Amino acid sequence: MNRRTFWWFTIPSVIVMLALMVFPLITTVWLGFQKLLLRDLNNPEWVGWDNYRDVLSDPEFWAALRFTLVFVVVTVPVSMVFGLAVALLLDRVGRGRAIYMAALLLPFIVTPVVGTLIYEDLFERGGLISWLWEVFTDDAFAVSASNVKVLIVVQYIWYVMPFAMITFFAGLQTLPEERVEAAALDGAGFWRNLWHVTLPHLRLLVVFVGLISVMDAYRVYDSVFVWTGNRFTEAHTLAVYNVRIATAFDIGRLGKGNAIAVITVIGIFVVLIPFLWRSYRDQIAERT
Amino acid sequence: MQLSRPPIRPSRIALHAVMILLVVWSVTPFIWTAQTSIKFTRDVASKTPVLWGYETTANAYRNFWLDSDDLNMWGVLAFILVVAAVATALGLIGRRARHGWPWFLGATAVICVALWRFPRIWEANDEYDFLVNSVVVTILTMVISLSIGLLAGYGLARYTGISGAVILIVALGFRALPRTAFVLPYFFGAKEIDDWLTSTGVGSWNFPLIDFPGIDTLQILDTRLAIVLALVAVNQPFTIWMLRSFFIEVPKEMEEAAMMDGATRLQAFRKVIIPIMWPAIIATGLFTMLLAYNEYLFVRVLAPTEWTLPVAIVSLTGGESSRTITEAAAASVSITLPIVIVIILFQKHLVRGLGAGAVKG
Q1: A90 is in which domain, residue-wise?
Q2: What is the ipTM of this complex?
């Protein structure tokens, strides 16, 4: 395909991305240097690095950053290992696989805010888990500042595990059976088989799932917002903290909010640049 | 005659036992909520959960969706089932027929007419408008996103120049960005445009074609259009990567043969490539559908009153609202059922889509 035709095909998408992604990002950076309040949007005032100073000296920002990092570090590996284990099990199921798969996919396809609401219901007064807790420990269970972070993490793993599961499962379908059988004939047990045959086959998928999981966990908003709302602000992640600062009724500080957004973006790119660079090299190599 | 069935061995039983445990872990919240939605308040409020033997009621559903207190919900259920049956029948015929699209169009028309007539047959609450918003936003996002994504995905799969690689990598970078980096400038930008429209007087012009009910001025903020544009944009990187990975699978010779016969590139694309791309289009469409239907943050910030269902449910079931816990459960079930049905119908495409998109991407 020549260059001209390529641009004719690609231009609508490129225009959308320029107008609604590149341009807004530039606006974000610009707004980060303005003093801009939600109730008075017409008078932005250039204040230089003030917003950034404000953010970096805000203990709430550091708390949000710390919880976000813990959240990523816990949920990503756990959901991937869990997902791989379930995928391996699912691969062995003969009859009834479609039903199992549909049931296991459910948490991932349900609207995240709704999934969180119904999960939270189990822990509210009169809910199934809080009742079981009371039966076994004689203590009343209540969602509180001390346990909400754990609940957020557990519920997120419940929500996101099917993504790893289904992707690894799809990958397992392309694993040639002869290779597994050959390894088994050579006397390889389950673990050696997993390590030397299955995982190398899934290598690219592991990187893919890992990248997507890190991106999604780092920017998590919906579920954390539903769990915490304005009750447990200390369990806010970066995105929730960011939106709260920017859009709080009557005291929303859009300038500061944009400064937080810029810092968040820089944060994910520190992790991502090596992968983007490698993908770029791969793309170039593929073309020649 | 004795069929030779594999003997049931303990390991098989163990496998199924583990799978059932996993299913319990996954679906318990759903079953709990589904139960809550059909209970009476006294059973929900009881200290020890009433797990079975309770009296069932559709009150919660009626209170959430409808404006009347005494109405037989069996009629509503029958209406929904008939519409679903007719639409499914048309869809099934369409799958068998040589030219499926008139049948699919018919199924879509049936659903649209049903959605349009429903509030005139029964007195629907405001919540019904949010359902309609959800449907409109989801469908528009899918159509726009896929049309421009298909063109770009094809171009990126076939072009070998350096700019293709650059676009792909930049898009991959965008995929990583948090919503917060976009939603604030979107809000600010939309506000600026609206202010400009108002100050020049353009905003109060009357355009018959975009005269959506409920909107009497031309504006961006607080319209379905704003939500659709935002969703199309943030969905573009994913769409073009996924579709590109499907297009790469298609051998070049396919369209080259057509172009030898005198077809232009665009004709070859439309007549030769698109017809074999339906599994890819369905898979990408499913993910786009989930994204649009499930979106919360964009709608909440960009549309203070034109809610879609996720925002409606969170806002209406939050602390201060008078909505009861059974109504919240009924709302959750109502919003979940449509996607569950769609996903069960298209489960294979979903799995294949993730497999193909991931392995090659």
Answers
A1: 58-257
A2: 0.90
